[in-house]
């Protein structure tokens, strides 16, 4: 069930989903309007706001609304995609994903397409002249005029909305929100009274049977509850050897179980062509890292964006001050049933700063800012192990920065900021 819900969420985010739903609703309204117009007594008791023109006028209005809505919509979105493709070269492909998943953009496209479909469907019902008895769908023509006004409003909204969405700060803010949400979902509040159950020792898995991957792809989702239920039903203990975000190679080990390998493990793993942020916290980090590293490329040379990304990483690290990673051990009736690999603080910090450190070693401003952020994180974090990870990355950054920095004053500043990290970590 978890995999099915995940697939449905993925489909609902597709760019075509909401416009398709709106188009179907528009066709249903067109059919309803036609029925109301053919209902006996409708013409005699029609309200004053209802369109009262004849056959020729109705055809002209519906044809004009249909042609203009699809023409303007197609032109505007084509130009927008071209502009976004150019901007994505600087900010990464996540910009295009934001555009396609944005509900405002989907609604705008849906308004244009549904207006076209409604008008075209209504146009076929207009008869008169040599075609037989004259018929005008008065309700349809009236609603078509209302939809035309909606198209104008949607066009004005869309231009302003897209202009703001290309802004680098907006992209960074969206990615930061995704990162914060992923971190909160992947971690839990620290509870000193929590009963932490340890996973079985390696000797326990000596006689385990191994499950191999059926096909290649990224592991997108793990149905933990389904795997625990499966282990309880079959009386087994399962250990996953991969975690969400890992790429599964065909015939590579995916899981193992003791005493036997039950059927149905692979069906509770969702494998796809790309990484997703539902359970893959490092994916959200890498998307933000990509913006920072692209900003440091020689063709872009935008250290201000890189500094903005570094600040967001500091925000994420400080968010973890009172949170801890789950153990990855699931039990039932005091018996371990499932062991899964989980992300950890060390891997998170490495995903945040390794690439930016490597790309920004020649930029003292970037190196100094990273050290400042690590110093703040060292003061906020209470766990000695996490502080050790922070100081380790600070030392690596200092070494790379000193090798790439020639100016004596900059080198002194880097050394001073590195000492500040060590002092903050105690």
Note the total helix count.
14
Largest sheet: 5 strands, mixed
The beta-strand count equals: 10
Order of helices and strands: HHHHHHHEEEHEEEEHHEEEHHHH
Helical amount among residues, as a percent range? 55-70%
Q: Going across the biggest sheet, name each strand in turn.
A: 2-6-4-10-9
Give the DSSP E fraction (strand runs of 2 or more residues): 5-15%
Overall domain count: 3
CA distance, first residue to last residue: 48 Å
Gyration radius (Cα, Å) is 29 Å
Q: Calculate the mean pLDDT score and round it.
A: 86
- Unreliable spans: none
Structural class by secondary-structure content: alpha+beta
Global morphology: flat
Question: Can you characterise this structure?
Answer:
InterPro entries: DUF2254_membrane. This is Formate acetyltransferase. The chain has 426 residues and is α+β, with helices and mostly antiparallel strands. The chain has 3 domains: 2-166, no CATH class; 169-187 and 200-343, Pyrimidine nucleoside phosphorylase-like, C-terminal domain (Aldehyde Oxidoreductase, domain 3), CATH 3.90.1170; 360-426, no CATH class. It has helices at 2-12, 17-38, 55-91, 94-101, 103-123, 138-165, 168-186, 224-234, 281-295, 303-319, 345-359, 364-380, 384-404, 408-425, and strands at 188-189, 209-212, 217-222, 237-240, 247-248, 253-258, 269-272, 323-324, 329-332, 335-339. The chain has a 5-stranded mixed beta sheet with strand order 2-6-4-10-9, covered by helices on one side. A hairpin with a 2-residue loop joins strand 9 and strand 10. Helix 9 packs antiparallel against helix 10 (303-319), helix 10 (303-319) runs antiparallel to helix 11 and helix 12 packs antiparallel against helix 13. It is flat and about 90 Å long. It starts with a helix and ends with a helix.
């Amino acid at each position: 069930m978890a995999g099915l819900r995940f697939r449905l969420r993925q489909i609902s985010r597709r760019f075509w989903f909401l416009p398709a739903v709106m188009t179907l609703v528009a066709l249903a309204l067109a059919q309803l309007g036609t029925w109301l117009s053919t209902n006996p007594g409708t013409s005699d008791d029609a309200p004053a706001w209802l369109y009262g023109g004849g056959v020729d006028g109705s055809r002209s209005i519906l044809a004009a609304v249909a042609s203009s809505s699809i023409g303007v919509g197609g032109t505007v979105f084509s130009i927008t995609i071209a502009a976004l493709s150019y901007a994505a070269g600087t900010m990464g492909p996540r910009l295009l994903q934001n555009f396609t998943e944005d509900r405002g953009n989907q609604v705008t496209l849906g308004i244009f397409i549904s207006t076209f479909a409604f008008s075209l469907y209504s146009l076929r019902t207009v008869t008169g002249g040599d075609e037989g008895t004259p018929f005008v769908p008065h309700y349809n023509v009236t609603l078509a005029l209302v939809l035309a006004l909606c198209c104008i409003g949607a066009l004005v909204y869309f231009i302003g909305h897209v202009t703001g969405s290309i802004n680098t700060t907006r992209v960074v803010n969206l990615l930061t929100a995704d990162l914060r949400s992923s971190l909160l979902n992947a971690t839990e509040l620290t509870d000193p009274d929590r009963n932490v159950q340890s996973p079985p020792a390696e000797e326990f898995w000596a006689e385990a049977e191994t499950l191999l991957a059926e096909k290649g792809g990224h592991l997108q989702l793990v149905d933990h509850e389904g795997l625990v239920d499966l282990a309880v039903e079959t009386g087994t203990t399962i250990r996953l050897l991969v975690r969400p975000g890992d790429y599964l190679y065909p015939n590579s080990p995916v899981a193992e179980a003791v005493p036997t390998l039950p059927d149905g493990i692979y069906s509770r793993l969702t494998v796809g062509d790309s990484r997703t942020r539902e359970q893959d916290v490092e994916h959200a980090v890498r998307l933000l890292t990509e913006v920072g590293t692209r900003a440091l490329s020689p063709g872009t040379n935008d250290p201000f964006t890189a500094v903005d990304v570094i600040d967001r990483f500091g925000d994420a690290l400080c968010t973890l001050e009172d949170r801890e990673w789950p153990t990855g051990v699931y039990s039932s009736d005091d018996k371990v049933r499932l062991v899964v690999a989980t992300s950890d603080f060390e891997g998170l910090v490495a995903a945040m700063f390794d690439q930016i450190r490597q790309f920004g070693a020649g930029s003292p401003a970037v190196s100094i800012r990273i050290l400042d952020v690590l110093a703040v994180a060292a003061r906020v974090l209470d766990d000695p192990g996490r502080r050790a990870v922070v100081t380790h990355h600070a030392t690596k950054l200092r070494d790379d920065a000193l090798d790439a920095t020639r100016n004596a004053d900059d080198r002194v500043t880097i050394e001073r900021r590195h000492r500040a990290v060590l002092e903050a970590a105690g």
